[in-house]
Each structure stands twice: as C-alpha cells, then as structure tokens.
Amino acid sequence: MATPDVYTSPRAYARRAPRRDVAGRAAPAPAPRACRSPLCRFSGSQRRRASRAMACRPGVDPSILIHRDPRAWEELLGWGCVEAIMRRVGLLGVRDLYSLVDLFFEHPQSSPDLLLGVRFEGEYGEEWRAYVERRRLGLGARMRFPRVDVGVRLDGVRVRLSPAALLLPFDRYRERWRRDAHTLYRATGGLIPTRAHPHYYLGLLFPQGLRALAARGYVWAANARSGGRLNHALAEWLYWLDHARMPHIDAMLGRFVPRSPLDKVVKNAEGASAERRQFRRAETADITADVPGVDVYISKGV
Predict the structure, then answer these.
(1) Within a domain: residue 218?
(2) Residues 6+ apart with CB under 8 A from 165
(3) Residues 130 and 168 in one domain
(4) pTM of the model
(5) Residues 237 and 163 in one domain
(6) Which of 127, 129, 137, 165 has the most crowded Cβ, counting Cβ within 10 A?
C-alpha cells in the first residue's frame, strides 16, 4: 500500500476541503468579513502611512502631564496624540481635554498605566517610551533660569528633584527623595503624595520659609546657592506650586509668569544667544534676610 508523502491531519483536511451541503454539492464561499476600521478603504501602504500619522509625536517631555494647561497640551502634543490618550482612558469619566488634563495632574503616579498602549514617536518619543514602559525619567531641573549674581546662600536647603519626580511611584524612589530632596522629605514626614492630589497636599506641607522666597522672584531663588549649587529645582517647585504649571513649558510657549522685576529676564532671554543670557548682577540689591525657617546669608557688596 502506498504511503502518502505528507501527512495531513483530519482537521487540516477539513479546512482545505471544499464545503458541501447536505446534497453533496459545493457550498458557496463565505462572504468576506466586514472591516470596521476606517483604514480599510486604503491600500496596504496607505494604511501604514495613516497608522504612522495617528502615532503620538509629543513636542515636549513627559512633565507636561503635571502641567495644568489644556492649551499647552493641544499645542505641544497635538490633537492626534490627545485623542489617542483619550481612547485609552475613556472609561474613567474623561469627557474632554480639560478632564483629561485634570486626571493626569491629580494622579501623576498612575500615568504610565494610563498611557500603556499609546505609541510614541518623534523627537521626544524615546523619553516617553522609557517613562511609560520602564518608568524611567530624568529627575533633575528642566528649567535653566538665567544666571544672576544674587550673592545669597541658603543653608540647610536641599531640593534637587524637579516636580517631574511626582510622575514616578514614591515607594520605588523613596531613597532618592530622601537623598536629593531631603528638605521636602522631612517636611512631608517621609511620605511624598505621588499617588493622588500632590499639588493640594504639597501646597499645605511645603515649608513656608521656602514658599516665601517666591516673592523675591523665581530667578532669585534659582540663583541662591545651597551647598555650592544653584537652586533651579527649588525655583521650579515654587513656580509649580504658584501656577500648577511647569516653568520650562510656559517659557517654551511665551507664557512664563514673573513674580518680580528680576523674573522679566526670562522673557527677555527668549530666543537670545547664550552670551546674552549671562547676567552678571541682579537688577536690584534690595534683599533682606527675613525669611522664617530658612537661614539666608547675603554676600557683602550686593
């Protein structure tokens, strides 16, 4: 008896054999399944181009997730990106862009889970993918304030983490908070509220002596030194607590809000060369050391 060259299982043979009705006649081929995607009317290459067009190409780093300004989301993320994110969180009561911004702002630690499945590309794509997929994010200050010689030293202040650190789970980065933002770590009792409503709780717990520094200007606070280092991260916190927005994003969009005449150098430096950004002396020398809770020392000659 001849042996078949290739073994075919009964199930595979049934799939290959033509379908027949009860009378043994060949049944008509089933109708093709209807495609419900709006891309089905395009060819394969057109579909791939359209799929790439719907990818999220943010024009800013992930710290925009704690930037409470829907206009900035629309301008720097684009509607394609916003719609892709809204499809992911549609079951959480998100009705429009405003509620979407509030969701991320009030629950920053949950952002990677909410963004899982969104495809990020473009200039900032790698940074977004690292944050969403691996929960990795640069924690240093993002705003580079103009250099001004204010001649001030803040002893006992250690705030080297940006507010963007709120986008990462506190339990995982507890030691980093204790080491690089010990002033905030101590003020909050060793528990940073990254899970929910951080702006509200940190507004209550943030050291009042440091909040008072904002009245002298964010540029002033950024150029006051602690341990020989500038306080750019501290100035970011002061701006974020005052406006619920990140200063470097406001500066990108020309919406930086000054607190003092000295802060106007930020707007003046917009688009200027590096040489014009180096300011040697402060515009005013009217600085006092009456800041409760913080040791402020003023250098002679200022």
Answers:
(1) yes
(2) 137, 139, 173, 176, 177, 181, 194
(3) no
(4) 0.74
(5) yes
(6) 165
Distance CA 86, CA 99 (A): 10
Q: What is the pLDDT of residue 157?
A: 95
Taking the alpha carbons of 167, 245, 114, 38 in that order, is the dihedral positive or negative? Answer: negative
Domain encompassing residue 86: 62-134
pLDDT confidence tier of residue 282, bands split at 50, 70 and 90: very low
**To 10 degrees, the CA torsion angle through 221, 227, 230, 233?**
-70
Give the whole-angstrom CA distance, residue 36 versus residue 292: 64
Any domain includes 156: yes
What the block records as the tokens of 119 is 């495809």
Distance CA 36, CA 265 (A): 55
- Listed in sequence order, the DSSP H helices in 142-231 are 174-180, 182-187, 198-205, 208-211, 218-223
pLDDT digits (tens, 9 = 90+) for 205-248: 999 999 999 999 999 999 999 999 999 999 999 999 999 999 99
Q: What is the C-alpha to C-alpha distance for residues 59 and 124, in angstroms, rounded to an integer?
A: 7
CA–CA gap between residue 13 and residue 188 (Å, rounded):
70
158 and 252 part of one domain: yes
Q: Is residue 88 domain-shared with residue 171, that is, in the same domain?
A: no
User: Is the same domain home to 198 and 266?
Assistant: yes
Same-domain pairing of 72 and 209: no
pLDDT (tens digit per residue) in 123-177: 999 999 999 999 999 999 999 999 999 999 999 999 999 999 999 999 999 999 9
Determine, yes or no, domain membership for 293: yes
Q: Provide the CA 38 distance to its chain's centre, in angstroms.
A: 31
The domain tally of the chain equals 2
Does some domain include residue 13?
A: no
Radius of gyration for the alpha carbons in the chain, expressed in angstroms and rounded = 28
